[in-house]
Every structure is written in structure tokens, then in C-alpha cells.
């Protein structure tokens, strides 16, 4: 995955495979090993596995997201099994 100020880009084997604008997200939940990024209008979620961050860490990502995109709320959620 690649994050910038405008969007999150998913990658498959190093090649772009999808993109979501931050404006289309509403919430980030901390569910233990996972960080579900919930989309606007209940359109689903993108589950980010904490151990899969390759540039930085999940612990660094959360404060960056809070600063760069304060309209995206963050909360602790139910732990995913």
C-alpha cells in the first residue's frame, strides 16, 4: 500500500491495483492486529493489517492520518478474530 495526502493506493506484487480517495473514508478503527478503514455511506471497508506496513508502521500511520485528515475519526473497535 502507498499513502499520500490525497489517497491510499493498493498494490499487488508492486503494481497499482486500486485507489481510494481519503474523502471517501469516514473512520479508522483499531481492532488489534487490523485497522479497518471504513468508507462513506457504509460502502464497506479496507482492512489494513498492522504487520503489513512496509513504509513506516501502523503506530506511525495513525497519528499521521489524524493530522493529515482530521475529518476521518479514529476509534477502538471490536477485536477481529
Provide a quick synopsis of the model.
14% of the residues lie in helices and 44% in strands. The chain is mainly beta and 81 residues long.
Layout of helices and strands:
Blueprint: E1 2-3, E2 7-12, E3 15-21, E4 25-30, E5 34-39, E6 45-49, H1 58-68, E7 73-76
Parallel strand pairs: 4-7
Antiparallel strand pairs: 1-2, 2-3, 4-5, 5-6
Walkthrough of the structure:
- The chain has a domain of 45 residues.
- The protein has a four-stranded mixed sheet with strand order 6-5-4-7, covered by helices on one side.
- The chain is built from one helix and seven strands.
- The protein is 14% helix and 44% strand.
- The chain is mainly beta and 81 residues long.
- The dominant shape is globular
Number of helices: 1
Record field, number of beta strands: 7
Head-to-tail CA distance between termini: 23 Å
What value does the Rg take, in angstroms?
12 Å
Helical amount among residues, as a percent range? 10-25%
pLDDT < 50 runs, ≥5 residues: none
> Would you tell me the overall average pLDDT?
86
Order of helices and strands: EEEEEEHE
- State the secondary-structure class: mainly beta
* Biggest sheet descriptor: 4 strands, mixed
In percent terms, what proportion of residues is strand?
35-45%
